[in-house]
Amino acid sequence: MTQVLPQTTPIVIRSIQYRDLETVERLCEADVDRDREHGTTNVEKPAKALLFKPLHGLKKALSLVWAPSQQTFGAYLADQDNQLRGMIRIAPFNRTRSTWRVDRVAVVPSAEPTIESLTEETPEPSKAPPKLSLATVGSQLLRHCFEKIWEARTWLLEVDVNDTALLALYRQNGFQPLAQMTYWVLAPEQLQDIAEREPDLPNLLPISNADAQLLYQLDTAAMPPLVRQVFDRHVLDFKTSLFSSLMGGVKNWFSHAEAVSGYVFEPQRKAAIGYFQIRLCRDGSQPHQAQLTVHPAYTWLYPELMSQMARITQEVPPQSVELASSDYQPEREEYLERVGASRVAHTLMMSRSVWHKLRESKLPMALDSLQLSEVLQGFKPARKPVPGRISLLRTWNQSTTDPKADVSMPPHQASNTDDSVRSNNPLLNLPTPAEFSDPPQEGPCC
């Protein structure tokens, strides 16, 4: 008897719908729990922020009437036989949408068939549905995003260095290491010790949209050229629109949080040399999250800005502070080690360009294989050129001005041509040389 192999239904990539929110939430919670079991913690990096909060419903409702809300959300699902197999979360990284980030790729683990689950209809384990791996589903989700988001020139993501499966998936799809990120945690006792020092910041100013140019110059100077090229930030990225302010206020109200920011102005150079932003949790349920940017020539600002942020945290319930540092900021890591901060996570920032280089050697008409004679062959005329009116007029002028020119023309055609030329051109209608000759002499009378 011939054994019929089961046919695998292809995976369909589709956009997320409202009915999928519950399933996606469970998938994201299971994914975060798996990371906690491996020892990784959820810090401020966006790659771990996968849970769909109740705020998403408000944002989805506003997207029906306001287009800017659609620019901050994007998720695609892998569907097979009306079952969720995986998901991917993406979002634009900058305001021009030239760089997009991949928040996370998650795959639903397929259940292995057991002996108790095998029935008479499926007596052999080979007839069970095949297990879908992370590399298979994840690659299809990534490729779909690369083709769907046509405006993205560069893709950016962060992955934990201990997650070998995700590292292999991203490397397989063309992502290369860009920078190494380290996440630190300062305990409340350490913050209290830092807050005892009076910060020396005479030119600490609040941030507004008028300072976007100064913050852009500071951000440009604080990172290497390769990272700056991938981020592709502009002055517009440091401005806050009215819609973003409203959404940020609603989000802070739901999460009982408050954002405090400021920058240090250098009056002699007319430039910003330091910037900080700290997101305070007023109910003490979550740790505070801080962002810090310091000009490489003013590294002495690290103790001053940390003291300023530590003083701000004393006004809310005691909680730890989380902040990040990269491998191109050794002064920050040295200061955090000196004050006793703890390393809690180590991630790898990876990027991928969408421009592909063609291999000319495999093309059927490669430029290197063409010879010079074959190139010049296309410039040769295909047939003998037909003379035009300009060339005929030039030939006639040459015959009239040069008496030695031998123009072969029958006598009757030449006479007809002279008559037509005289009739058409009044300037040439002159008497013939015979009319100017002397009259004939009369003979003597006989």
Q: TL;DR of this structure?
A:
With 446 residues, the protein is of the alpha+beta class. Helices cover 32% and strands 22% of the residues.
Description:
There is one protein chain. The chain is an alpha+beta fold and 446 residues long. It folds into two domains: 8-111 and 126-174, Aminopeptidase; 176-354, Gcn5-related N-acetyltransferase (GNAT) (Aminopeptidase), CATH 3.40.630.30. 32% of the residues lie in helices and 22% in strands. The protein has 13 helices and twelve strands. The chain has helices spanning 21-37, 55-62, 134-148, 164-172, 188-195, 212-221, 225-231, 242-255, 301-313, 330-339, 372-377, 389-401, 411-424, and strands at 12-15, 74-80, 83-92, 99-107, 154-160, 176-186, 204-205, 257-266, 271-281, 288-294, 321-326, 342-353. The protein has a twelve-stranded mixed sheet, with helices on both faces. Helix 3 (134-148) crosses helix 4. The radius of gyration is 40 Å and the shape is extended.
Q: What's the helix and strand layout?
A:
Elements: E1 12-15, H1 21-37, H2 55-62, E2 74-80, E3 83-92, E4 99-107, H3 134-148, E5 154-160, H4 164-172, E6 176-186, H5 188-195, E7 204-205, H6 212-221, H7 225-231, H8 242-255, E8 257-266, E9 271-281, E10 288-294, H9 301-313, E11 321-326, H10 330-339, E12 342-353, H11 372-377, H12 389-401, H13 411-424
Parallel strand pairs: 4-5, 10-11
Antiparallel strand pairs: 1-2, 2-3, 3-4, 5-12, 6-11, 6-12, 7-8, 8-9, 9-10
Helix pairs in contact: 3-4, 5-9
